[in-house]
Amino acid sequence: MKIAVLGGDGFVGWPTSLHLSDAGHEVHILDNLSRRWIDTELGVQSLTPMDSIQERTRVWHAETGRRIHFHLIDLAKDYELLKGWLAKHRPDAIIHFAEQRAAPYSMKSDRHKNYTVNNNVNATHNLLNAMVELDLDAHLVHLGTMGVYGYSTVGAAIPEGYLPVGIETMDGRTVSQEILYPANPGSIYHMTKCLDQQLFAFYAKNDGLRITDLHQGIVWGTHTEQTRRHQQLVNRFDYDGDYGTVLNRFLIQAAIGYPLTVHGTGGQTRAFIHIQDSVRCIEIALKNPPQRGGRVEIFNQMTETHRVRNLAELVAKMTGAEIAWLPNPRKEAPENDLVVKNEKFLGLGLQPTTLGEGLLEEIVDVAKKFAYRVDRSRVPAVSAWTKDIAATVEHDPEGKRLKSVS
Ligand code: USQ
């Protein structure tokens, strides 16, 4: 297949591009390199030394003989360029990762909120709009988030996208319907993915676009089969308070002797998936497109759930790291249970890579190898969800920990 990977320079986009290229597909990365610019804005860099996208694709070609093509396009701003590219190349499938994906970054300031909404919603809408205009019947696979559901349940497992409901009619009968599970985002970033869901539902219904939305949990790990092949194919690995995600952060913190930064009591339960499974799921989704005219196909892309404090305790036990119990900069439930259905991917053959000490140790080893690149002052998560929370949380400039000032 000819596949366009939008956002193919990012944390999940890059290993996905390699995986699909390795499987024999013709891969084109469309990216505006915004993630690299955000590193510059924040004054941080990936823990792992990343080469330019051109250099990465050159090394991939030298290693495998396969070409990955790169096109510098800003989907949110360059509508005509995007449309022209799609008209010329007419890909069979499009994978859409091209969104600002960090919740803390989206909550930093009014400017960051605007940027995240404008970038994410316009990128998605420009793409859908152009596909209709060009009569392009490509299968669109979008990387969404588990966060569209919120994380609290009423004792029932979160279904894969659609919730069966009974509605009482005026004459007293009960009519059954399946509706999109009520959106309950916890950040501006997560909210943009809820808006995406509405755009997809409309374009599937109105124009018959074939769309798959993957509601992914928190990704952990860094290597995949293909990124291991050469040191210059290494994936990016974020550790900072905005882009680092919880389990990877704990592992890096353990490697550099930094107390594990648990927010509150660490009672938040979240869904997780290893990066290797993430790229496999995308390939499985590609092989199972919905029918034209059908509703949006939704998969829960996660393999297990864990409570944050249990992860911290596991990493502490494994490495001897200390745990710091910090005031939470986010507005979220301090404790929640989470049960999620993920039978669709399992039914299509996914064999989950679960949290095993071997893989966790491998990440600590990667972190130790590159520990000299870590700026400890960038470790604390300082982006507060509200002005009230910002007023009660102070950032220690030594980079040791956040402390409550109230
Ligand atoms: N947390 C800590 N300490 C830390 C960092 C995070 O206790 O140092 C806590 C947070 O308060 C939160 C939980 O860990 O309760 C998860 O935070 P996270 O930063 O690992 O994940 P999140 O902000 O939800 O976002 C990440 C990705 C996002 C993806 C989402 C999937 O950045 O792109 O959509 O995970 S999900 O969480 O299932 O919505």
UniProtKB/TrEMBL annotation:
InterPro entries: Epimerase_deHydtase, NAD(P)-bd_dom_sf
Similarity comment: family membership: Belongs to the NAD(P)-dependent epimerase/dehydratase family.
Domain of life (superkingdom): Bacteria
GO MF entries: UDPsulfoquinovose synthase activity
Pathway of action: Bacterial outer membrane biogenesis; LPS O-antigen biosynthesis
UniProt keyword terms in alphabetical order: Hydrolase
Every NAD-dependent epimerase/dehydratase domain range: 3-291
Protein name: UDP-sulfoquinovose synthase
